[in-house]
Design brief:
Layout: H1 6-11, H2 24-33, H3 35-43, H4 53-70, H5 91-101, H6 107-121, H7 128-155, H8 163-180, H9 184-217
Amino acid sequence: MDRVTFKETLSDFFDAVFSVNAPLLKTLRLLFLNPGKLFREYLSGKRKTYYKPVAFFIIITVVHILIRNLIEFDALENVKVQKREGYDTTLTVAAGKFMFQNVNNFLFVFVGTMALMLKMFFYKRYFLAEYVAVSFYMVAAYTIIGTFNAFFMKFVDNSIQYLAIIAMLIYYCLALVSYFKKPAFWIIVKGFFSYVFATILYMIIAYGISFLIVWSRS
């Protein structure tokens, strides 16, 4: 089986906007209907059959940002901040607001933490570089789910802030079952913990970066 290298994965950045003839719709369809097939076939060398993971991730992210701006969705609109004198002007709160406002800019961090946790929990299956490719697809799926969640919060019920995270957890576990084609119970258990730890690490790193940016501007 051909192995994906870090060089191949990172080289996707250079042709992300030029791969206009790649089968985007086929990649999108399999991402939700049969993600395991998409991951396995891409990693086995069928690179021209599907849209490259980094290019796919970038396109989905751009579309998500455009839609959010079009419907004027504000992620902070319903975030409750404790109000005490001087509290909501501290660096910690300002950093949290910055992180929420720029959450799309930190999705690359989520790709990294997800790949790292996949390698830790399923270390015998694939190399880290291959999990990076899979994680780009997975986070793209998370972005799509987040886009629908933005519509739901904007036009249906704006009190459900974490629906996308829960939906992504379910998708993530089912995608891993489809990917590894092994007994579902242990895949789901390890998938659950890998997703939780990846999300926590992602939030910590994203918040840390946000804090440093806000601190440097103060």
